[in-house]
Amino acid sequence: MELAEGRSFDVKMSTDSLNYIVNEEAIKQMGIENPIGKSLRFWRDEPGTIIGVVKNFHHQSLHSPIEPIIIRLDPNQTWNVFAKLDNNHLSKTLGEIEELYKKYEPAYPFQYTFMDDKFKQMYSKELLVGTLSNYAAGLAIFISCLGLFGLTVYTTSQRTKEIGIRKVMGASIPRLVLMLTSKFTVLILLSLLIAFPASYFIMDNWMEDFTFRAGISLEKFLIAGGLALTIAWLTIGYQAIKVSVRNPIDALKYE
């Protein structure tokens, strides 16, 4: 937490057990100006004083807006201890923490969780959707490539004699490959024009569940479109080059 104004608690000051630190959202909702030093009564506690204001921070998932927070100093009501650990000595540090815990609270078992696991729980639904989407997208790309490859084989087989005649007339291999891929490229571009608005609508609708969310930039669609064209060209190009480099005599004999 980062202080916006005022000070933090001081365990050496016994009166701080009656004082409060609040976040900026609490100040906003209470409509207080110059909050430091203002009186505040929380629940049934004795009236205290606001000694500090912390900047707003996320203590729930990004689905929820930042809510007002009131923080007080009450060591007798401490339930959790947060510790920042070094991953290089994790097991050793946990053992030392457990020894310290048992020294002061031997009657209760030592239990701990990691914050990254808590974050995963917050976004478990999104993680599952992301994993399933990756598998679904991979399967869709694979099936599309198979279909595109089959369509390319069929098209080139229908134009084998045409390709042979064009080679005899002086057409170069790059020109023949371009001729075979251009039609598919136009179809892919048309499909992207349909897919982009649909994808934008679906993504925008999904992100409405989040109070805080990233914007959808044009760059992501351009990258996706470029990858789609690259995969399609690689799929088509292999068969197009294979047909284009054939001996024109064999192509003219093709039935």
Report on this structure.
- The protein has 255 residues and is an alpha+beta fold.
- It has eight helices and five strands; from the N terminus they run ββαβββααααααα.
- The protein has helices at residues 24-30, 90-104, 115-122, 124-158, 160-168, 173-207, 218-244, 248-252; strands at 3-6, 20-23, 39-40, 48-54, 70-72.
- Strands 1, 2, 3, 4 and 5 form a five-stranded mixed β-sheet that branches.
- α4 runs parallel beside α7 (218-244).
Cα Rg: 33 Å
Strand fraction: 5-15%
Q: What level of helicity do the residues show?
A: 55-70%
Which structural class do the helices and strands define? alpha+beta
Shape: elongated
Quick synopsis:
With 255 residues, the chain is an alpha+beta fold.
Question: Could you name the key traits of this structure?
Answer:
8 helices, 255 residues, alpha+beta
